[in-house]
Amino acid sequence: MKLIYTHENKLLVENARNLLQMEGIETVMKNEFSSGAAGDLAPLDTWPELWLVDDTQLAVAKTLIENMEEQANGPDWRCNNCQEINGAAFEVCWSCGNPA
């Protein structure tokens, strides 16, 4: 098994896990509930980790995660329906549910 992704935000790690799962790539999440140990452990040691089960899928998994990060770091967009500003990671408007 190889560590494929880690981040302080558990939702981002879960998003990566879901993305890989939709592509048929099996992963295991570690440190899922360890954030309460921050203070006794270094904060970095409590971040959730996503581990790849099949090392032969490493290149595909890395590409998918890199694409996810690029999309999340893109420009914000304005909803055509309600004019609300949405972060690049949102595919639908958080306010009215209209697609990007």
TrEMBL record:
<protein>
    <submittedName>
        <fullName>Uncharacterized conserved protein containing predicted Zn-ribbon like domain</fullName>
    </submittedName>
</protein>
<keyword id="KW-0479">Metal-binding</keyword>
<dbReference type="Pfam" id="PF09413">
    <property type="entry name" value="DUF2007"/>
</dbReference>
<dbReference type="InterPro" id="IPR018551">
    <property type="entry name" value="DUF2007"/>
</dbReference>
<dbReference type="GO" id="GO:0008270">
    <property type="term" value="F:zinc ion binding"/>
</dbReference>
<dbReference type="InterPro" id="IPR001876">
    <property type="entry name" value="Znf_RanBP2"/>
</dbReference>
<keyword id="KW-0862">Zinc</keyword>
<keyword id="KW-0863">Zinc-finger</keyword>
<feature type="domain" description="RanBP2-type">
    <location>
        <begin position="72"/>
        <end position="100"/>
    </location>
</feature>
